[in-house]
Amino acid sequence: MHVRFGQEILYLEGWCARTQYNACCRLLGPGINIHLAENQLLREIFHLGNKVLPIPSSQKTSKLERTLMNAAAFKARTIQRNKNRDKRSAAMAP
């Protein structure tokens, strides 16, 4: 079994690790992901090592860039679908 939180994955192998994880889930509820990422005690219990540093903002794309890229991809998909529709309707016509 594995649990993804942020950029990390926690692999739970064996009954003991799963039982510990389930107990932590019952205690912490929906905050378990934040605690797995930040809480040093939990990181030691589950052998996660040191905290993973977040990606620097210089490597991330801005919201405007993402929006523009998604808009271009959407437009290209729409054009391709319209071309395929024309081919299907021509093939079905007698």
Automatic annotation (TrEMBL):
User: Domain of life here?
Assistant: Eukaryota
InterPro entries, from UniProt? Answer: IFRD (IPR039777), Interferon-rel_develop_reg_C (IPR006921)
- Domain called Interferon-related developmental regulator C-terminal: residue spans: 39-89
What Pfam families is this protein classified in? IFRD_C
Protein name in the entry? Interferon-related developmental regulator 1
